[in-house]
Specification:
Layout (H helix, E strand, L loop, with lengths): L1 H24 L6 E2 L19 E2 L10 E7 L5 E2 L8 H12 L15 E6 L5 E6 L4 E6 L4 E5 L11 E6 L5 E5 L4 E5 L5 E5 L7 E7 L4 E6 L4 E6 L15 E6 L12 E7 L2 E6 L4 E6 L5 E5 L12 E6 L5 E5 L4 E5 L5 E6 L11 E6 L4 E6 L4 E7 L38
Antiparallel strand pairs: 1-4, 2-3, 3-27, 5-6, 6-7, 7-8, 9-10, 10-11, 11-12, 13-14, 14-15, 15-16, 17-18, 18-19, 19-20, 21-22, 22-23, 23-24, 25-26, 26-27
């Protein structure tokens, strides 16, 4: 027994310095943001490659979207060597655990209830609001780290951060529903200005016109859209204040075209403002300049592709319109004129499923991000550009809540279930 113990101690004497050196050397290179699709290393140390597409191959349709991973927190950042580490490196990781070097490490920071997000103009940072954590998560791909912004101003922490949008330069606007204003921060998380204090009731979604420097705010409980001129927000007046100007208010409470019932999220594209008119179960498309309603996308109903509680909305480079149907846990895709094209999702926690999703946003590479709130993650899809994206026959009645959930990749598109929460 003493010989076995002395051998173990001997191995420890050799391994510990190597392990400590390997831990130190890994800090020299920034960690890599890994969305979890591979080729890479899964949480259990095995390689993992996921290839899920929509519509699925069995449908006979051209593939339009591909699963591209997910964000869930600090553990998305992995040492650069892990992407292609050898068996020896896997053994080294196991030995670190064996000799207790991982003991005492802090619990990783994770998303809790992600609400909305945006990607900065450089494609470097992914910023996500989280209403449970009462903060903004900043996934910095260049620095290789996750930053947390807790403060709306120097003296006020966030309470209910919701909508978020990039502004001019490197500034970002964040709506806080309970603070009842929008805060403007720089990319160090420092407050630059406050917008709408005393003028907003419960702000939710945001959109920004970079040419005219106008900030559109969906004031959910006031049932309208407020438009602020923020062109002077980086200039202080004689008293040191940085005040935005409320230019106009669009809409009022009602059901007619141009009226709203609890508008939530927005997207601005090519002079058109897309507004999820949540309790009217539709998306209204407005002329961003005049505020006049031009058309409606979606309708209330019980078929796949109908709306019950639409939340997030986004538009990609081809003009496809993405609408989060939060009640039935779907991401619905329409063309710009409002013709329904394809659903993605259904209730669940698997790949391509959602549980009370809230918002959607698209980056410059047509990557589609979905805030999957009750699954505590952000799902990432890649839009695969293809000609003649056409309407599919999806007018299938919704099953009741007893319907079983099938793996989305193995289910014909026309048979996808939708479960009622």
């Amino acid at each position: 027994m003493s010989q076995i113990f002395s051998r173990f101690v001997g191995w420890q004497g050799i391994l510990l310095p190597l392990l400590l050196l390997s831990g130190c050397s890994s800090n020299k290179v920034p960690d890599v943001l890994d969305f979890g699709t591979g080729p890479g290393v899964a949480a259990d140390g095995t390689r993992e490659v996921r290839n899920v597409i929509w519509p699925p191959t069995e449908s006979g349709e051209i593939s339009r979207f591909k699963y591209a991973g997910e964000l869930y927190g600090e553990e998305n950042f992995r040492p650069a060597y892990q992407a292609n580490r050898s068996m020896g490196q896997h053994m080294m990781a196991a030995l670190r655990w064996l000799v207790g070097l991982t003991a005492g490490e802090s619990t990783p920071i994770t998303l809790q209830r992600p609400q909305a997000g945006v990607v900065d103009a450089e494609g470097r940072r992914i910023l996500i609001t989280d209403v449970s954590r009462q903060a903004v998560y900043v996934f910095d791909q260049v620095a290789g780290r996750l930053d947390i912004w807790n403060n709306a101003t120097a003296r006020q922490t966030f309470i209910t951060p919701t909508g978020i949008v990039m502004g001019m330069g490197k500034d970002v606007y964040i709506a806080d529903a309970d603070l009842a204003y929008v805060t403007q921060l720089n990319l160090r998380g420092e407050n630059v200005a406050i917008i709408g204090e005393g003028q907003l009731v419960r702000p939710t979604g945001l959109a920004f016109d970079r040419v005219k420097q106008l900030l559109y705010v969906a004031d959910t409980h006031d049932h309208n859209i407020k438009v602020f001129d923020v062109s002077q927000n980086n200039v202080s007046d004689a008293a040191g204040n940085k005040n935005s100007t409320l230019l106009r208010t669009i809409g009022r409470k009602g059901e007619r075209l141009g009226e709203f019932n609890s508008p939530t999220y927005m997207a601005l594209d090519k002079g058109e403002l897309f507004v999820t008119d949540t309790l009217n179960a539709r998306v209204q498309v407005l002329d961003a300049e005049t505020g006049v309603a031009k058309r409606v996308i979606g309708k209330r109903g019980n078929n796949v592709g109908d709306l019950v509680r639409p939340k997030g909305v986004a538009v990609d480079s081809d003009g496809n319109v993405y609408v989060v149907e939060s009640f039935h846990d779907y991401l619905l895709v329409f063309n710009r004129e409002g013709e329904f094209l394809i659903p993605i999702g259904g209730t669940g926690e698997g790949i391509g499923q959602f549980y009370l999703p809230t918002s959607v946003w698209v980056d410059g590479n047509d990557q589609v991000f979905v805030a999957d709130m009750f699954n505590a993650r952000v799902a990432l899809l890649q839009y695969l550009k293809a000609p003649d994206m056409k309407k599919l026959d999806m007018q299938k009645p919704l099953p009741d809540s007893s319907a079983s959930t099938l793996p989305i990749a193995d289910t014909p598109l026309s048979d996808l279930p939708v479960l009622v929460n």
